[in-house]
Design brief:
Elements: E1 8-12, H1 15-21, E2 32-35, E3 40-46, E4 57-64, E5 70-75, E6 85-91, E7 94-100, E8 108-117, E9 123-126, E10 130-135, H2 150-156, E11 161-168, E12 171-178, H3 186-195, H4 198-202, H5 204-210, H6 214-225, E13 234-236, H7 255-263, E14 269-272, H8 274-288, E15 292-302, E16 309-314, E17 321-322, E18 324-336, E19 347-351, E20 358-359, E21 362-363, E22 368-369, H9 370-375, H10 384-392, E23 394-400, E24 406-412, E25 418-423, E26 430-432, H11 434-437, H12 444-452, E27 467-473, E28 482-490, E29 496-507, E30 513-526, E31 531-538, H13 540-543, E32 552-561, E33 567-575, E34 582-586, E35 595-602, E36 612-618, E37 622-629, E38 638-645, E39 651-660, E40 667-675
Helix pairs in contact: 6-8
């Protein structure tokens, strides 16, 4: 081939073909997105026919980073383990290149240039640089995020619709979420997040080279989802004052949060709480190709002093202090091999982006092997002792007398770490994964793990002839009055006198008090071998005025006998059932065809609602839409709003709607839509 006819016509990245083969077709056909350890094809086009074989050699130059900080040069010399290489097939005026990436290549945005070289290795001509993204590849056995089960990959990498779990351990409430990892521009934002980490800002080249390792990248993501130490995505807020931002309960998906952060010049978005932090982290990690699931731990302990026990102090005011028990707490598990640890710690790794405690000086947590938590191997990195406490700590309530002395009022060694939950990979139902985190409560193996962990095992240390205290309630509906029953059982052979104090308070999901609602005191004489029942009716007129956005009431009971060493304490968190929005989709669900969401809502409260706001979004259906309701919604009044939208991608989709107002928040509704592609129409 002479020099004058060796002219490049262009490079076809074969985006549609490659993206489908690499499980990234949901990201569209505008950009090539491929996964490491798996070949992809390029079609090199010449203006003139090329001889068989090509009489000039080809070379490929890859640049990785915003300014090409990392450069990789490869030739078509055949397979080369651990290195980039390519092969070629020639057909008339085209050369089909098959490009092979190593399974441990750094993930990121690459720029690719094809060079035509002379026999002496000089560049004769080169193509215009073409960009593509390289992601982790859980379908590749050589990748450290490899997951063998195809069904699990469909959930933990490809599913854009998820369910988070809230409520309480005995009243679990599902919350639908749009992860949206394949929505337009999300992959760009994911790498923008990595580029704005403190390590990348210090030395981008060094940081890029470390992006081979999902342990390093996932730990960076947990630090960057919160904004405590860096240019992170979300600011946390737990005081109920969200006037300068968005209430955490209003979010229904990750994409609006990520876009606000990026479009705002990396200014943190207000506000997040644990389920929002975890869901955003899940979106980023799934987008990068790391299999990830959202996890909820009920009765989650926050151990501030590292003793693997939670000591709570109470007095006559019945307000505990120091360490805390969260009604629930959310994090994510990501799947990867731990080549930085001894054998046996591969698999699910805990990653917690909620800023609770510092790890190596930074507000992040993990990756912590779930296996290390279960076995009590606290020396393994990262942050195993903290996670172990979240699911295993004993809770001891101490009553503080007026003279400062303490009496143990309650011991619970089995409440923390209840009903650890995630969405099943096989449907829209909850999967209990508690057994993955710990052995059965009270079992011999559990005691062995406690001993290995150096756990201080608390003892009841009580006279067995005593009073027993419990609290019972039926499911309660927000806006109604309901009863709570405190039972005092006298298991001794003598009548016993005692004073019972019952309080109800509005609290947040992580235990912060928003105000006392009601209080009741009673002087009791409980006959021997009998049960006394004390009823307190909780009135909406009282709790509605101080309710937190989490719609949670804590009822506490303190029983004091004539003996100062006999004090009994119990508490329960009662999540109030919320009304649901009715969401109906009108029209034929076809890509690029108009649809209408008809949303109906009836005010169930005995008061009018002010400042109503509907928020609607859905991956591949519509970007976030916010509709203000200017007029008051009277008691029992029903309203309807119609919101148009246009689907952009075919498949099974979820449309999520939220309603907030001054007196009623976090009201949800959703619709499942099967969207057909245009080509499927008859």
């Amino acid at each position: 081939m002479s020099k004058q006819n060796a002219v490049f016509q262009g490079v076809d990245l074969q985006v549609r073909l490659n993206n489908r083969a690499h499980h990234t077709e949901e990201m569209g056909t505008e950009r090539l997105v491929v996964r490491r350890g798996q070949p992809f094809s390029l079609l090199l086009q010449f203006k003139y026919a090329t001889p068989q074989p090509l009489d000039k050699s080809l070379a490929l130059i890859l640049r990785l980073g915003k300014n090409g900080e990392v450069v990789v040069r490869m030739s078509g010399s055949g397979a080369s383990h651990g290195k980039w290489w390519f092969s070629e097939k020639i057909a008339q005026s085209e050369v089909l290149l098959s490009v092979h990436s190593p399974a441990d290549a750094p993930v990121g945005l690459y720029s690719l240039t094809v060079l035509l070289l002379s026999a002496g290795g000089q560049t004769i001509e080169q193509t215009t640089p073409q960009s593509f993204y390289l992601l982790y590849n859980p379908w590749c056995a050589d990748d450290t995020v490899y997951m063998q089960d195809e069904g699990l990959l469909r959930e933990y990498v490809l599913n854009e619709n998820g369910i988070l779990y809230q409520g309480s351990c005995d009243q679990i409430i599902p919350k639908h979420w749009n992860f949206g990892q394949f929505e337009k521009g999300v992959v760009d934002i994911c790498f923008e997040i990595l580029d704005n980490s403190p390590a990348a800002l210090k030395s981008l080249e060094t940081d890029i080279l470390k992006r081979t390792d999902p342990v390093y990248v996932s730990r960076t993501i947990t630090a960057m989802v919160n904004s405590n130490d860096d240019r992170g995505i979300l600011s946390g807020c737990w005081d109920g004052n969200y006037i300068d931002g968005v209430s955490p309960t209003r979010w229904t998906g990750s994409v609006p949060i990520l876009r606000r952060w990026s479009e705002g010049g990396t200014k943190s978005v207000c506000y997040g709480q644990c389920w929002v932090f975890s869901a955003v982290a899940c979106t980023i990690l799934r987008c990068l190709g790391i299999p990830t699931r959202c996890v909820t731990n009920y009765k989650s302990a926050h151990d501030t002093d590292g003793n693997i026990n939670i000591d709570l102090l109470i007095n006559k005011g019945l307000e505990p202090q120091n360490d805390s028990i969260w009604n629930f707490h959310c994090w994510v598990d990501s799947w990867m091999r731990r080549e930085d640890l001894p054998k046996g710690y591969d698999g699910w790794q805990v990653l917690d982006p909620t800023p609770q405690e510092r790890s190596d000086g930074v507000f992040c947590c993990g990756p912590c092997p779930v296996r290390a938590v279960k076995e009590g191997d606290l020396e393994m990195k990262y942050d195993v002792p903290f996670v172990f406490s979240e699911v295993n700590a004993d809770v001891i309530y101490w009553f503080v007398h007026s003279n400062g002395t303490r009496t143990q009022a309650s011991l619970d060694s089995s409440t923390v770490g209840k009903n650890i939950s995630t969405k099943s990979a096989h449907g829209e139902y909850r999967e209990d994964i508690t057994a993955e985190y710990k052995y059965p409560e009270g079992s011999m193996k559990e005691r062995e793990v406690y001993a290995k962990a150096g756990k201080r095992v608390a003892k009841e240390n009580r006279d067995p002839h005593q009073l027993q205290l419990s609290i019972k309630y039926a499911q309660a509906v927000y806006g109604t009055d309901f009863d709570v029953i405190v039972e005092v059982q006298n298991v001794s052979g003598e009548d016993t006198s005692a004073q019972l104090t019952i309080t109800s308070s509005a609290v947040t999901y992580n235990g912060l008090h928003r105000g006392e609602c009601q209080r009741k005191r009673a002087d009791l004489t409980i006959p021997a071998q009998r049960v006394h029942k004390e009823v307190i009716r909780l009135l909406y007129d009282r709790y509605g005025a101080c309710m937190s956005e989490h719609n949670l009431i804590r009822v506490t009971a303190l029983l004091q006998t004539s003996s100062p060493q006999k004090v009994f304490f119990q508490e329960v968190n009662i999540p109030l059932n919320m009304p649901r929005l009715q969401v109906e989709v009108i029209g034929e669900a076809v890509v690029s065809r108009n649809l209408t969401a008809k949303i109906s809502f009836a005010n169930p409260l005995p008061v009018a609602l002010q400042r109503g706001v509907f928020t609607l979004e859905g991956s591949a259906l519509t970007e976030e839409k916010v509709i203000q309701i200017p007029e008051a919604i009277g008691q029992g009044k029903q309203i309807e709003v119609n919101i148009p939208f246009i689907p952009t991608r075919a498949g099974l989709r979820k449309l999520l709607v939220d309603f907030d107002s001054d007196r009623l928040r976090d009201v949800k509704g959703e619709a499942t839509i099967i969207v057909q592609g245009c080509g499927l129409l008859a």
